[in-house]
UniProtKB/TrEMBL annotation:
It comes from Rubellimicrobium roseum. This is Glutathione S-transferase. CDD domains: GST_C_3. Residues 1-84 form the GST N-terminal domain. Coiled coil: none annotated.
Length: 291
């Protein structure tokens, strides 16, 4: 069963990231339909997801459209209880749902002052009282979840859940703007940046169309604080180790080089998303391990 998901620019659309994580991070097959934010293309894509007016929008195999990320989370959880979108333990599930609901409706200062931008990492970001209040509230509810459930590991309610998917764009904002949070909160951010699904999304975000100027900020930059990618580059000539694209199985037309080895892909996007972060992709990792 494959779901259809309408999304905006991967680098900037925080709600699209949430919607996609609710599928990819839980092993549910998804086919994306993307369009550039603030363009006619977005309206054109959403025509096939009526009556949705915003992204993400999910179309079920029977054609029914589910709007809004909370509704998407609940619908997928009801259809795939084995996937673990919500914790099985009733108490943990209640906490996770509370966290997701507050994220869905709140933190307006953080959203407004620090829009998601996965293509940048700044330093010396100004800290207003409103932004400080939102960060304090994040610390409070993240600590409350851990204290209430007594769980170990990096996630808020035991295993990775829909609540964590909802906070992934928050983690990216803390990383992008180097916002001041506790060591515990920073470790939670680091867990998000290293999560395989998040890494794949960001790798695609880095090559998913041109920059959106509206998101540019005149602040000093610093390196992205997530896992350092394996160095790779696009090349135009060479003999790849694989005869078919690592992802689609189609004939190879585009090449990359990493560590003196050459791999082939069926199109520029397949290649470029791999160049951005080769070890985010399981098929590349499997091929990389073969010598």
């Amino acid at each position: 069963m494959t779901y259809d998901l309408a999304i905006g620019d991967r680098a900037y659309s925080s709600w699209s990231l949430r919607g996609w994580l609710l599928l990819d991070a839980f092993g549910l097959a998804v086919r994306t339909h993307s369009a550039r934010l603030y363009s006619d293309d977005l309206a054109n894509v959403l025509r096939d997801f009526a009556p949705a007016r915003t992204v993400p929008a999910l179309r079920l195999p029977d054609g029914t459209v589910v709007m809004e990320s909370l509704a998407i989370a609940e619908e997928l959880a009801s259809r795939h209880p084995e996937a673990g979108l919500w914790p099985q333990d009733p108490r943990a599930r209640a906490v996770a749902r509370s966290l997701a609901a507050e994220m869905h409706a709140g933190f307006l200062q953080l959203r407004g002052q620090c829009p998601m931008n996965l293509r940048a990492a700044y330093r010396d970001w100004p800290l207003t009282s409103g932004l400080r209040a939102d960060l304090d509230r994040l610390e409070e509810i993240w600590s409350w979840a851990r204290a209430t459930l007594g769980g170990e590991g990096p996630w808020l309610c035991g295993s990775y859940s829909a609540a964590d998917a909802f906070f992934a764009p928050v983690a990216s904002r803390i990383a992008t703007y180097d916002l001041p949070v506790s060591d515990t909160a920073r470790a939670y951010v680091a867990a998000h940046l290293a999560h395989p699904s998040f890494r794949r999304w960001r790798a695609m975000a880095l090559v998913d169309g041109p920059d959106q100027p509206v998101y540019a900020r005149e602040q000093p930059r610093r390196p992205w604080p997530g896992p350092e990618p394996l160095p790779a580059r696009a090349i135009h000539e060479g003999t790849p180790e694989n005869a078919a694209c690592l992802y689609s199985g189609r004939p190879v037309t585009h090449l990359l080089e990493a560590g003196g080895r050459i791999f082939g892909f069926c199109n520029a996007f397949c290649r470029d998303k791999t160049v951005a972060d080769p070890l985010a992709w399981g098929s590349f990792v499997s091929a990389w391990g073969v010598r």
